[in-house]
Amino acid sequence: MHELRDRWAGLARRIDRATPADRDRTVDALRAFAILGVVLGHWLVTSLNTAKGGLSASSPLSAMPWLAPMSWVLQTLAVFFLVGGHVGALSYATARATGVSYGEWIGRRLARLFRPVAAVLVVWTVVAGAMLAAGVEYGTVRGLVKLVLSPMWFLLVFAGLTALTPLVARLSPLWPLAVVAVVDVWRFALDGPAWIGWVNVLAGWLVPYTLGAAWARGAFARRTPAVLMLAGGVAATAALVIWGGYPASMVGVPGAAVSNLNPPTLAAVTFGLAQCALALLLREPLARVMRKPGAWASVALVNLSAMTIFLWHQSAMMSVTALGLLSGVDLPGLHTVPDSLSWMGARLMWLPVFGAALLICWAAFRTFEQGGRKKRPTGTSRIVRTGGTGATPAKTPTHA
User: Fold this and answer.
1) Beta-carbon neighbour count of residue 124 at 10 Å?
2) Residue 161 in contact with residue 168, Cβ under 8 Å?
């Protein structure tokens, strides 16, 4: 144990020394927080149980709606898009300053984003085919594949916003926010068609993305704008939930009439505004924490494999659930219906097992995220130069 601790301390010191002095470590920390929030959220509110025969998905939020505040902490996509807009704006500005064409810039960024996706699609095509050939019910296979693929929707949105960076980098967040409000009034108050809500998939996530671009321009150099945005976001979200009839949960709940996330509602967007404002206000204390070698090394390592972690976390959970069926009994917190606090307590005990399975997936597939560079740095230099989603936040052109 002492030897492992000493080796980790040595690695952390090397990563810390290899990090450029002008690197904004808080950007990496916020990205790591966003990715891990999504992972933990899915592991806690997604249950594969045997109540209907085979494996079917359900959520503890259906039986225990008072757990909705948990989604306020673990639904962190707005922070991810905030960081994406910040990094994208800086990266594109650097590309223009160094003579890199738009085509080359977007090509590199999207290749880094979708290379690990290809690995997931290939593996699950084979797995799904093998399960059907072995006689597994189609409904079970469809449900499992849906769990794997459904989180990828945000990658398509993120890719679209990245491609639009030159057009939206200076757009005021008020414009997409207004679009979301109009769409919600149309579909909820005026009984408009349900499909119009899907306009909010782009408009809703454009709000934090443009906030990130504004951050890159120095719009939040003072705390006042973020404080006002936090107060406004909290007040607006509370009003929409209490008087507007929006769900309190910021993630979808099976069987609910309205989902705040699929597609995004005005409540989800105002909640995201508050979340982004809080992230911006926490930059200074976060920067102090990131000066500690151990904390910074942990964040750097998560960022190095952010997409691998995101893309394979559902597969890790499903693998543990499937292997648990070999025991011949329904294991509490794994195969049982999520309808009580005892289930939640048992579920927490399974999180380290899910983490171990994800570590195996990471070891097998991380090269798809880290490979493909013309000039690959080695050792700690690769760790500090590589960011999640193929983008490395920094203030200098050499890291864009």
Assistant:
1) 15
2) yes
Length of the chain: 400
| Cβ atoms of 236 and 270 closer than 8 Å | yes
- Please report the DSSP string for 288-312 in residue order: HHHTSHHHHHHHHHHHHTHHHHHHH
CA–CA gap between residue 59 and residue 254 (Å, rounded): 7
Coil vs helix vs strand at 39: helix
Please name the residues in contact with 254: beta carbons below 8 A apart, sequence gap of 6 or more: 57, 58, 59, 62
Mean pLDDT of 100-122: 90
| Cis-peptide, bond into residue 263, ω within 30° of zero | yes
φ/ψ of residue 164, rounded to 5:
-90, 5
Tell whether the torsion through CA atoms of 138, 257, 273 and 171 is positive or negative.
positive
Contacts of 321 (CB under 8 A, 6+ apart): 48, 55, 334, 335
Q: What mean pLDDT is reported for the chain?
A: 88
Number of H helices, E strands in the chain: 18, 2
Helix 306-324, helix 138-149: angle, nearest 10: 160
Q: Which two tokens stand for residue 69?
A: 């505040």
Query: Residue 95 is encoded by which pair of tokens?
Result: 């590309």
State the Cα–Cα distance between residues 118 and 98, nearest whole angstrom: 31
Nearest-angstrom CA–CA distance, 270 and 233: 5
In this prediction the pTM is: 0.90
Is pLDDT above 70 for 303?
yes
Structure tokens at 116: 């690990």
